[in-house]
Structures are given as structure tokens and as C-alpha cells.
């Protein structure tokens, strides 16, 4: 990302996908909370999720090189016995812009930390899957999960503008999210108004 004061146009595009429904598609290997045997909770019916997310707080700091430092706080209520949750971080982003143009952006994830619980990670072709929770103990009814990581989006795809395009809560949640709070700190002031979109996973507009 070029220094913002050197360009006349800065394109800020933020994707916020807020899921208020339970029946959401999930990426392979990242289907939500593991159950007592370590398998996925995807067997849970849409009418009875194993857990729900009461509040999802995301703090994002963007630097001038298109790298993000992200801190997430996820407050969940468990309705069934589970060991924890799975957070899936996309390594491949498919960018669809308002002007109809599209790009594929590969991200590098580093400095991953889970400050609140034990965790393990696994890799699939498009996602880093973080299994958060104690495999030898069930989660409490109310749990707060805190994690942080760096997310490098690499070189800008646009020649005439700098672009920040990010799905704030990500995909792969197989439960409902009641509330999302987010704060984004940019490296410099910019011209123009940021664009936002919301909707369930798989929607093309919202």
C-alpha cells in the first residue's frame, strides 16, 4: 500500500458480513464448535445451535503496507455441552467491487495468539482453522474468547487507488451472532466514504 498522502484517491472498501441466522455454509474443516468427541457440531439442527455468539468485538489496525493487526473478543453462550469453538481465518479472499471488477487476494497469517484458552490450529487449502477450548473439559455456559493475529493482504490490486477490503467476522460460523462491534484504525486520513455490506453467508448483496 502506497503512503496515502502520495495519492489523490484512496478506496476503502470494508465487507461486514453479519449472520443473524443459524443455517450458514462453512468452509471445509471449519464447521464451528467441536463436540465432546472432538467432531464438529454441524450435526446440531438449525433450530437448536450448540452455542450462540452474544457479542463479537473486532479491533483492526491497518498499516501503510496493507498489513492488519486484528484483535477479536467473542462472547458466547453454550446451550449444549461442547469443548469450545472454531475460528476460521481465510487465506484466500475473493474481492467483488461495486464497479463489477473482481480480484483474488491471498493473505498471510502470522503472530496468532489466543489469550483466553488453549488452542490448536489446522490448515486447509483456503483457511487456517483455530480450535479454541480445552479438549479435556466442557466449556462453561458463558465463555469469552480472546485472540489476536496479523493479516498481510500483500500488494494492492488496484493501480489508481489503495484498497482495504476485509470481511470483519469471516465465514464458517454455523450459529447466530446477536451483535457485532468493530473499530478500524487507518494509517492516514483518506478521501471518500467507506463502503459497507451486510448479510448472511453466500448473499451477493445486502
Model description:
The protein has 206 residues and is an all-beta fold. It has strands spanning 10-12, 51-62, 67-78, 84-90, 92-96, 102-106, 108-114, 119-123, 127-133, 142-152, 162-164, 180-185. The model is unreliable at 1-46 (pLDDT under 50). Strand 5 (92-96) and strand 6 form a beta hairpin. The strands form four sheets. The protein has a five-stranded mixed sheet with strand order 7-10-3-2-12, with no helix packed on it. Strands 4-9-8 form a three-stranded antiparallel sheet, with no helix packed on it. The chain is built from no helices and twelve strands.
Kindly report the oligomeric state of this protein: single chain
Main pleated sheet: 5 strands, mixed
Alpha carbon gyration radius: 17 Å
The residue-averaged pLDDT reads 77
Order of helices and strands: EEEEEEEEEEEE
Silhouette: elongated
Q: Percent of residues in beta strands?
A: 35-45%
Short précis:
The protein contains no helices and twelve strands.
Amino acid at each position: 500500500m502506497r503512503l496515502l498522502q502520495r495519492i489523490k484517491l484512496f478506496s476503502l472498501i470494508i465487507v461486514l458480513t453479519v449472520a443473524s441466522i443459524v443455517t450458514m455454509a462453512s468452509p471445509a474443516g471449519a464447521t464451528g464448535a467441536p463436540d465432546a468427541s472432538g467432531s464438529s457440531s454441524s450435526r446440531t439442527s438449525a433450530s437448536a445451535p450448540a452455542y450462540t455468539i452474544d457479542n463479537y468485538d473486532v479491533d483492526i489496525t491497518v498499516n501503510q503496507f496493507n498489513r492488519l493487526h486484528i484483535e477479536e473478543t467473542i462472547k458466547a453462550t453454550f446451550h449444549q455441552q461442547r469443548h469450545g469453538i472454531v475460528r476460521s481465518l481465510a487465506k484466500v479472499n475473493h474481492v467483488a467491487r461495486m464497479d463489477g471488477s473482481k480480484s483474488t487476494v491471498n493473505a498471510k497469517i502470522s503472530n496468532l495468539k489466543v489469550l483466553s484458552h488453549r488452542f490448536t490450529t489446522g490448515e486447509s487449502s483456503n483457511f487456517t482453522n483455530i480450535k479454541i477450548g480445552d479438549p479435556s473439559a466442557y466449556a462453561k455456559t458463558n465463555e469469552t474468547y480472546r485472540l489476536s493475529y496479523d493479516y498481510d493482504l500483500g500488494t494492492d490490486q488496484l493501480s489508481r487507488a489503495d484498497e482495504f477490503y476485509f470481511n470483519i467476522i469471516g465465514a464458517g460460523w454455523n450459529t447466530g451472532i446477536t451483535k457485532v462491534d468493530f473499530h478500524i484504525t487507518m494509517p492516514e486520513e483518506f478521501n471518500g466514504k467507506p463502503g459497507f455490506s451486510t448479510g448472511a453467508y453466500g448473499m451477493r448483496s445486502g
